[in-house]
Amino acid sequence: MLRHALTVSLLALGAVAPAADNLLRNGSFEGGLLYWHNINPAVHTLVSDQVRSGAQALRIEREGVMSAPFVCERGKPITCSFWVKGDRAGEVRVQLPPSAREVGSGHGRLWTSEATKVVKIGTEWQRATVSMPADVPQDGFWPEPHYLVQFEGTVPLVIDGVVVNQEAQGASDYVPRRAIEMVATCSDLKGYTSDGNLLERGQAVHLTAHASNPGKDAATVTLRWQLIDYEGGAARGPLVERTVTIAPGRTVHETAELKLESPGMVLARASALVAGVLIDSSDQPLTSLPYPCAPRKPDPRERFGASFMGPHTATLASRMGMAWSRWFPRSKWQDVQPDGRDAFHWYDREYDLLEGLGISSHVVLYGWPAWAMDAEGKVANPLPKDMRWKADDARWNDLALDTAWDHYVTSTVGHYRGRALVYEIENEPEFDRWDQFKDEYARFTIRTAKLIKRADPKARVMVNNVYGIPSGLNGRLLELGGGKDIDIISWHDYHEGWLADGMAMRRMKANLKAFGAEHIEIWFNEGWAYTNTAVDEPLACTHETGAQSTNALVDSIAELTIAGQDKTILFHNGYEEHGMSFWDYSGPGTMLWDWYGNPLPLVAAWNVMGHHLGLSQALGQVRPLGANLCVFQDLRNQRGVMVAYADREAPADVTVELPCDGLIAEDAMGRAQPLGGRRLILAKSGRPLFLYDAKSTAGSVYLAAVEPLDRRHASFVGAGGA
Questions:
Q1: DSSP β-ladder status, 565-572 and 304-307
Q2: Are 712 and 624 in contact (CB under 8 A)?
Q3: DSSP category for residue 599
């Protein structure tokens, strides 16, 4: 570790404009493209032979780029100024939309001529300025006025010196946001399509600090490198410092080697200090899996999974420990029989791949082949054309009939018999125009379940609905006795933070019991909420940072599982060629990789949950004052484990005196340390801890020991009881 005394005159640096004069990060492209999104290295490159501000500029051969979000004040203009020149005469097209795609498009601020500012350009540098008002109303998934800038050209072009402010007039030249500007990059990241940018625990990584001096005088700067935990507070490695002198208008590129001693996601932070004062910093998330999983055989008892786009995302998920797939391969009726009753397209190659990775699958059956159904999106009657029977028609109970749907279902189940999968009759039937056909939906579903069981008595059958269980449609199904033919009911939801709590799950269980269907398992198999990148930039959507979203997810899953949710399966975890896209920057975004291709902290958290809870028996929940202990028997590791977290909205950290010795406390990133006594401190952030011991104490022993701590005993304990 290098430490040097630092003396520098701040007089010259003080002449630089304050940060508020430029809302944008890395507007001069000095050393890296962090804080710029949608980057395609094949057509978006940094150049040093065509610059107007600093030492580098951004060349755009084709396709658009957009900035990281920036924070605006509602009601004021958003003004963007930039240097630009083209390889030949043409246009640069600029948009200033909200950082949530659905909100932007819904208010005409995306992909419309009205939202696009067009600037004619030539082959010489010119300063351009465009402006739009920050007047889009707030939305549930977009609660704050965070916007971004998008650039696209009709010809190859170079952009430099980008400034965003909220003044009526633009900036005549580049205005730095800091006296020294910092961008961090890591050369060890191989790219999303290689290995999902997952590193190895203990690996030496090389973090480059690109520190630029936009001032008119040389500056002596202390550069600092350190690994920080996923919540941005605690150090996860030693500090490295180095003093450099940066010439005016120049950038230094200094690299330090750091070791990933702490598993999970850490923030690799590069900072610039002048006279001991922090001027700027930049965070590059780095992730290693604490429990990387090898290919294995499917185990239907596994609790966790996601939807995949193809082999790459499935392989990444398998390595994380996920064990269920939903939308890969595509399995709806029109995918299997696009051309007619007697032609089938089977997906054995895809199921072979998944099973080789240890992943079980959903086969979602219902669909809209044009030869058998009303066209998708133009459905007048949701029943197949040869099954448009009234609810009281005797043919519903006649399994000797062989309709087009019957033939498809029985052929599919027969073909895939013995594979690791479940049959989901229909995805989100509420949106398939069954409103006027509720009884027919019930008859259709019961008939389908019976056909599946006849073709394979060991097959498991699922019905699905959005939101809570049961929906109106599935409630009618249960009223008509359909529960006895169903094994699983799944539900969907999209919002930020907790999916639901234990009370909500207990209500769902009670609803099923009221219909005499308590045997039906409850799965969650699509949805949840968008999670922001761990890169240090303003939130694109929701109120929650990536760390806050991760804590909420782990806490919620632990509580829901204890209360009776058997499986938790997310929507798409990533694309085959990149992580999140701007399309996902709204409520339905559930990607586990951000738009830089970095793993979100959720990747490590899912890996930790899968290790401890993926194969587990839910035993019970104990709620000490201000805290929660969800107790499981971990079948994979043959020991008890407690998931501990503070109450939601806890005003302060919570202390619990546990009646157990020798506990190990492991956080959501897989960092495990001896608790060092019986006192457990739970952060008000909801940061979860997995508690277990080296003696493999059974979960039942833990549950019996901690049960007296439950808050329902609080008055008794407070009065001196034991």
A1: parallel
A2: no
A3: B
Exposed / middle / buried, residue 722 (Cβ in 10 Å: 0-12, 13-18, 19+):
exposed
The β-bridge relationship of strands 521-527 and 488-493 is parallel
Q: Is 41 helix (H, G, I), strand (E, B) or coil?
A: coil
Q: How far is CA 98 from CA 37, 104, 141, 159, 528, in A?
A: 14, 5, 11, 22, 21
Residue type, 448: T
Pairing of strands 360-364, 324-325: parallel
Q: Which residue has the tokens 């990933």?
A: 260
How do residues 387-410 score in pLDDT, each as one tens digit? 999 999 999 999 999 999 999 999
- Contacts of residue 93, defined as CB under 8 A and 6 or more positions apart, other chains included, come to 116, 117, 118, 119, 151, 152, 153, 154
Compute φ and ψ for 379, nearest 5 degrees.
-80, 120
Q: Could you identify the residue written with the tokens 């519903």?
A: 396
Q: pLDDT tens, 223-258?
A: 999 999 999 999 999 999 999 999 999 999 999 999
pTM of the predicted model, to two decimals? 0.94
Neighbouring CB atoms inside 10 A of 566's CB total: 16
Closest CA to 58 of 94, 97, 80, 32: 32
Let me know: does 491 contact 473? Beta carbons within 8 Å.
Answer: no
Strands of 117-121's sheet in order across? 36-37, 65-67, 150-153, 90-95, 117-121
CATH code, 619-718: 2.60.40
CATH architecture for segment(s) 181-288 = Sandwich (2.60)
Question: Minimal CA–CA distance to 188: which of 70, 333, 294, 285?
Answer: 285
Q: How many CA atoms lie within 13 A of 173 on its CB side?
A: 7
Summarised one tens digit per residue, pLDDT across range 472-516 is 999 999 999 999 999 999 999 988 899 999 999 999 999 999 999
In the chain, what is the greatest distance between 2 CA atoms, to the nearest angstrom? Answer: 92
> Would you call 648 exposed, middle or buried from its count of C-beta atoms within 10 A (0-12, 13-18, 19+)?
middle
The CA distance from 272 to 253, in Å, is: 12
CATH of region 18-165, choose from 1.10.3720.10, 1.10.443.10, 2.60.120.260, 2.60.40.10: 2.60.120.260
Q: Tokens 């520190």 map to which residue? A: 211
Q: Which amino acid is at 685?
A: S
Report the 10 Å Cβ neighbour count for 493: 14
How many CB atoms lie under 10 A from the CB of residue 513?
12
Given this chain, do its domains 181-288 and 304-607 carry the same CATH topology?
no
- 150, 94 in Cβ contact below 8 A? yes
Q: Give the contacts of 119 (CB within 8 A, at least 6 positions apart).
A: 84, 91, 92, 93, 94, 128, 130
Interacting residues of 376 by C-beta distance below 8 A, sequence separation 6+? 334, 367, 368
The answer to which of 126-135, 289-298, 425-434, 707-716 has the lowest mean pLDDT is 707-716
Distance CA 642, CA 621 (A): 9
Q: Which helix (H) or strand (E) holds 13?
A: helix 10-14
Does a cis peptide bond (omega within 30 degrees of 0) precede residue 470? Answer: yes
Q: Show me where the domains of the chain are located.
A: 18-165, 181-288, 304-607, 619-718
Distance CA 250, CA 244 (A): 12
Q: d(Cα 565, Cα 559) in Å, to the nearest integer?
A: 9
Residue written as token pair 């401190």: 681
DSSP 395-414: GGG-TT---HHHHHHHHHHH
The torsion angles phi and psi of 385, rounded to 5 degrees, stand at -60, -30
Per CATH, the number for 304-607 is: 3.20.20.80
